[in-house]
Structure formats: C-alpha cells, structure tokens
Specification:
This protein is mainly alpha-helical and 412 residues long. The chain contains 19 helices and two strands.
Length: 412
C-alpha cells in the first residue's frame, strides 16, 4: 500500500508539469521531476528556471514540502507498523522518553503533532530567509525545500544566485535542524528543553560527522587556495558539507570541481545520510553508528574470544536481531546500488556519472558529479527510469519496495 501510494502520487504529480506550456517535458521527464520532488531528491531535468512562471516554480517546491511531510509520517508512524524502516530500530533501542512507544498514542494524533512541528519550522525558516534578504516569494519557496531537505530552487544557480552569506547561514541552520529525528524535536518542544538532544546518541554522532567533515573540507579548500579568503573557504565548505550530508542538495559552489578527494567525501557523507525519523535520505546515522559499534565489537572478540560484549546505545543493550536487520539492510543496499550502477553503465554513461547519479538518487541527494552535476535532462530515457526507481528505493528504505519482488509477498 505504501509503495503503491508513492508510485501513484509521483505519477499523478507529473500532470501539471506535463500539461504546462511553460515547460516542454516528455512523459519520462515529467515523471522524473515529479518523483524527484515528492521523494525530496532534488534532481532536476529542467534548465532555465529563472525564466519559468512562478506557478510552476512554486508547484515544484510544494511537491517537495508535501513529500517531506509524508516521509516523516511514513518513517515515524507507518513503517514501524510494518516492521521496517530506520525508526523501527531507533524506537526499539534508543534511550529516553520515546523508547518503545509512539510520540502520542494514536496514528492520527502522531501525524498531527509531526505536522505542527513541520509547519512551524517552515514558517520560521521563511521569515528567517526574508529577514536575511530574500524576496517573499523566494523566501517561502526555499523554506519549503529547506525544511523538507529537498533542494529544489527557483533559480538555476541555486542559493549561489543570492550571493548572500546571511541567506547561506539561515540555510545551514535549518538544513541541520531538518536532518534531526523529528521525535527529538517533538520531545524538546513538549518538555521545553533541549536536554534530550544531548542524551541522544544518534544526534551526537550526526553532529560529530558533520563537524569532522566540515573541518576536513575547509582545511583542504583553504590550503589548496580554491578561494581567496579563509572566511570564504569556511562558508563555502560548511554550506556544501551540511547541504550534501543532510541530502538537501542546495549549492553555493560547484563542489564537483573541488580538488583532491572532496567531491567523493561529500558523496560518501550523503550515503551516510541524516538521522532516522527526519526528512533526510541516505542510510541513516543510526544504522552507520550500529555498524561501527558492531565492527569494534568484532575486533574486541578477536582479542577476547570468550568474552560477552554487548552493543549499547545510550546505556541500553541493542539486541542481535537489530544488528542483523542493520547488516541485512546494508547488504541489500549495496547490492541494489551495484545492480543499478551496472544498468546505468549499460545505457552508455561513464563510470563517474553513473556512480554519482545512483548515489545521488538512491540517497535522495540530487546533484551528482560529472554530467549530472547540474541537470539530468540529457540522460538517456532508460537511465532516467532506472534513477526514478532508485529515488523510490531510497525513499522507502529499500525493503518496503523490494518486498514487492518476492514471491512470498504475492502468495500472502
């Protein structure tokens, strides 16, 4: 039902784009753009955004905002009922007030609480953008794609169009906030305290990863003399790291042309992704944290073969069943990635374009490297359909979509 809902909604969402005379899109391109919006991927086949009517521009932004809201409700309320999804792991094993229970007792009330937080963040973000110097239309439009971690913009140059460090600062703050588990936002709002953030292992790991990658990026940019001043290196570096790592996809610089390993470091950061229960994509921080802990436990077992070494999160022991589920997700994710990579190579794309396109779409990031650094419009038709599947696969946490291809599901 969940898979059918997203597939049908993505197809229906393409109709305004397909029927509009302002943009001449094929059915493939219209479906791609619609699914990219609803899955908050942010990959686009449209160029010349600055000359499009505001109605089309706003519709694209609204698609992402509605998709982001759907993702939160899906991750926090629906997927755990089906026994899949990152939040199932999170709720079962995390410490604090959200352990082993929903935010509020009923699904409808949970959705209402999440909607309230999501809508409030959007309003505050729009006001902040306006104060920072955006026109009202741009402020509202970009707040929709910031809080949803979508990455669509009303300009071809994305946020680089504004050349405004205050706007960049607002975007960094709200992208970071939107990448956090919304259950934590709810608890902090309910209790009027931010203490829950500091007690959450996933949030601490999320912050550590972003800070570490930001330091490395700024360091390389500065000493490679990519930018004239240290302040520009800091602002450009931090913005791109937060945008890519949270899988938002806004850009203020062409990170694909940055020196050394930086473009691939950022792509790997997108694979890690944001927190479970957020609007972000990727594998989710909670899974990566558990994989690291499991790896460290195996090293300890080599030293102490007979020792019983539990994996803990916030003082609570994580069951082996959860660890197995995490590794199962990782294995299926890697296999799906490799199959789609080979499929794209078969359409004639070069290895860098194919790798980054799959990585950008399955992690719901948007911009990639090489030929997909700006737009996906020139890709072969078959490649676009493969990437549409990748966007759905990543958005539905892999298992929810792949279960449709198992004979056991249809026998049930």
């Amino acid at each position: 039902v969940v898979t059918l809902f997203w597939a049908v909604l993505g197809t229906a969402g393409c109709l305004p784009l397909l029927l509009s005379s302002a943009v001449e899109l094929s059915i493939t391109d219209a479906v791609f753009e619609s699914l990219s919006g609803l899955t908050t991927t942010g990959a686009t086949v449209i160029s010349g955004l600055d000359s499009l009517p505001k109605s089309i521009l706003f519709y694209r932004q609204l698609l992402q905002w509605l998709g982001g809201l759907g993702i939160i409700v899906l991750a926090m309320a629906l997927l755990p009922m089906l026994g899949v999804g990152g939040m199932q792991l999170y709720r079962a094993e995390s410490p604090g007030p959200i352990k082993d229970r929903k935010l509020v007792p009923r699904l409808a009330e949970t959705a209402k609480a999440l909607w309230y937080i999501y809508f409030s963040l959007t309003i505050v973000c729009a006001i902040a953008y306006w104060i920072a110097g955006m026109e009202p239309f741009d402020a509202i439009s970009h707040s929709l794609s910031t809080v949803s971690i979508g990455g669509f913009s009303t300009h071809d140059a994305s946020l680089a169009y504004f050349e405004n460090s205050a706007v960049d600062g607002v975007a960094i703050i709200f992208m970071f906030i939107a990448g956090i588990n919304f259950a934590l936002h709810f608890t902090a709002w309910q209790r009027r305290t931010g203490r829950q953030y500091l007690l959450d292992p996933e949030f601490l790991f999320y912050s550590f990863i972003l800070i570490t990658i930001s330091i490395v990026t700024v360091f390389v940019l500065y000493f490679s003399e990519v930018y004239v001043s240290a302040s520009e290196s800091i602002m450009k570096g931090i913005f791109q790291v937060v945008s890519i790592a949270t899988t938002t996809g806004f850009t203020t610089a062409d990170f694909s042309s940055w020196p050394l390993f930086l473009p691939y470091l950022l792509l790997y950061a997108a694979i890690i992704g944001a927190c479970a229960g957020s609007t972000g994509g990727g594998m989710k921080m909670i899974r990566i944290l558990l994989i690291f802990k499991q790896g460290f436990r195996e090293v300890q077992r080599l030293i102490h073969p007979k020792a019983i070494i539990p994996i803990k999160l916030g003082g609570n022991v994580v069951s082996d069943r959860v660890i197995e589920a995490v590794w199962g997700f990782f294995a299926v994710y890697v296999m799906a990635f490799m199959v789609m990579l080979l499929a794209l190579l078969a359409t004639g794309l070069d290895i860098i374009t194919a790798f980054s396109a799959v990585g950008a779409c399955i992690n719901n990031l948007g911009p990639g490297l090489a030929d997909v650094a700006e737009t996906y419009g020139h890709l072969p038709v078959m490649a676009k359909w493969i990437l549409c599947f990748a966007m759905l696969l990543g958005r539905l946490e892999v298992f929810t979509l792949l279960v449709l291809f198992t004979p056991m599901f249809w026998r049930r």
